[in-house]
């Protein structure tokens, strides 16, 4: 196969980028169509679709401008860009405008606002790529891990002060970059387990959580015994007895039995020279109980409206259907009403009737589901998956660590935005205000992701 010529652009990524940008604008246009677009072109520019059109043009220009800049520039000034972004995150806490309870925007008047957290993602990606690509770092050493983690922990702390927990969460995606460069997988596994325990602890009383964790710990110990079939059979019998006990409203009896079995089996395994396994299981059990209890206490201390947001995700049946659950319920109805082929462009009653709040931003995916149906949803998801897969392919063909790590950083941030935003609209993820890249209304998000794509295309063309 002939090698690609120098400075040749990757048309697959560019095509997907342009398709998503224009589809996004069309969906924003259809959301406002029900209210009508009256007046001349300058009047049109005052509504959300008009403003987004301006941002689309600006973003396209900036994306191509970023492509024209030599890749050496981004490597050389990566740290300066990073510190500039961190400075903006600090200044917005003092000079920023509060919107929806978060001081996260600079207001330039005339309805023009800039959210520095979107650009901080680009700055962090490029600085982390510069650090890991320029030095021989062993990410199995604690020192290297702490230094690498500090690149995205700093913006996370600044974002939590705004507060903007959703944007802060996105930066955790950059751990996938570290994992690609040798970060032990056990760290990611422990974080995922801790996150699951914290989420469960929010809406689960400590006693109930202890029952579940006792059963899990007992199963792990049972699975590592000799004559496993007999032990597993006993575990199944005891689990059945526990379920019956709960049916007869005897939770404390079941909890006491579960803890007794766990501790007894731990002693058995310890005496049979499986001290490491026993210590790991018991340590994980007690740490998990502590995390779950703290999460439950924190949940009970929250104001009711914040509790409702958590219940919408973890226990939607207990959330107020006219309050916090309103957005999610109407989001699901809008997507479901689209059926297989959708109602057609500009024909969505939910979309144009303003039944789903924040539909041009957090819930733009609902417009796709209602008007384009299942086929349209699959098409959009395929575009995102194709974009991310292509970025990974590009990453693996790079000759320098900086280029490879930058590409993985872009793919990681894209994936988290894509997964959480679409999950929000269907109740699979918490509603935390993360936009859908290229589709959601918002100049800062579109501009920042356009810069990421422009730099990516440039670095790949120079590989």
Tally of individual helices: 20
Give the proportion of residues in helices.
Answer: over 70%
Decide which structural class fits the backbone.
mainly alpha
Number of strands: 3
* Global mean pLDDT: 85
| Terminal residue distance | 17 Å
The largest β sheet comes out as: 3 strands, antiparallel
The rough form would be described as globular
Number of domains: 2
Q: Low-confidence runs (pLDDT<50, min 5 residues)?
A: 1-5
Q: How would you describe this structure to a colleague?
A:
This protein is 72% helix and 2% strand. The chain is mostly helical. It folds into two domains: 11-183 and 337-461, no CATH class; 193-301, no CATH class. Helix 3 packs parallel to helix 20 (443-461), helix 5 (78-95) runs parallel beside helix 7 and helix 6 (116-134) runs parallel beside helix 20 (443-461). The longest helix is centred in the last third of the chain and has 33 residues, at 364-396. The two termini are 17 Å apart. Mean pLDDT is 85; it is low at 1-5.
């Amino acid at each position: 196969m002939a090698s690609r010529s120098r400075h040749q652009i990757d048309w697959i990524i560019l095509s997907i980028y342009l398709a998503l940008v224009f589809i996004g604008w069309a969906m924003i246009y259809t959301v406002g169509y029900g209210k009508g677009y009256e007046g001349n072109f300058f009047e049109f520019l005052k509504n959300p679709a008009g403003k987004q059109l301006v941002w689309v043009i600006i973003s396209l220009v900036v994306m191509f401008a970023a492509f024209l800049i030599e890749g050496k520039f981004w490597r050389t000034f990566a740290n300066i860009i990073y510190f500039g972004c961190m400075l903006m995150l600090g200044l917005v806490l003092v000079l920023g405008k509060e919107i929806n309870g978060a001081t996260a925007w600079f207001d330039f008047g005339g309805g023009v606002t800039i959210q520095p957290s979107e650009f901080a993602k680009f700055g962090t990606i490029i600085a982390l790529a510069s650090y890991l690509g320029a030095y021989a770092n062993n990410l199995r050493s604690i020192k290297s891990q702490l230094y690498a983690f500090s690149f995205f922990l700093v913006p996370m702390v600044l974002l939590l002060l705004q507060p903007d927990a959703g944007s802060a969460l996105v930066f955790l995606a950059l751990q996938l970059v570290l994992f690609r460069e040798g970060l032990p997988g056990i760290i990611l596994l422990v974080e995922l387990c801790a996150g699951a325990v914290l989420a469960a602890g929010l809406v689960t009383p400590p006693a109930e959580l202890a029952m579940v964790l006792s059963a899990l710990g007992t199963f792990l110990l049972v699975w590592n015994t000799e004559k496993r079939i007999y032990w597993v059979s006993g575990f199944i019998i005891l689990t059945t007895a526990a379920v019956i006990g709960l049916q007869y409203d005897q939770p404390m009896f079941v909890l006491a039995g579960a803890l007794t079995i766990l501790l007894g089996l731990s002693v058995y395994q310890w005496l049979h020279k499986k001290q490491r396994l026993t210590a790991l299981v018991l340590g994980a059990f007690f740490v998990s109980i502590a995390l779950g209890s703290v999460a439950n206490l924190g949940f009970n201390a929250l104001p009711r409206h914040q509790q409702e947001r958590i219940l919408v995700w973890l226990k939607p049946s207990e959330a107020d259907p006219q309050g916090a659950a309103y957005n999610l319920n109407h989001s699901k109805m809008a997507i479901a009403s689209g059926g297989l082929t959708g109602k057609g462009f500009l024909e969505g009653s939910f979309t144009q009737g303003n039944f789903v709040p924040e539909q041009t931003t957090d819930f733009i995916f609902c417009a796709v589901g209602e008007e384009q149906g299942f086929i349209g949803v699959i098409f959009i998801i395929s575009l995102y998956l194709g974009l991310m897969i292509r970025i990974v392919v590009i990453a693996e063909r790079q000759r320098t660590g900086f280029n490879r790590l930058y590409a993985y950083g872009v793919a990681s941030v894209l994936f988290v935005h894509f997964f959480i935003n679409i999950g929000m609209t269907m109740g699979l993820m918490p509603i935390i205000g993360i936009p859908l890249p290229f589709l959601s209304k918002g100049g800062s998000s579109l501009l920042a992701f356009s810069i990421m794509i422009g730099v990516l295309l440039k670095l790949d063309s120079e590989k």
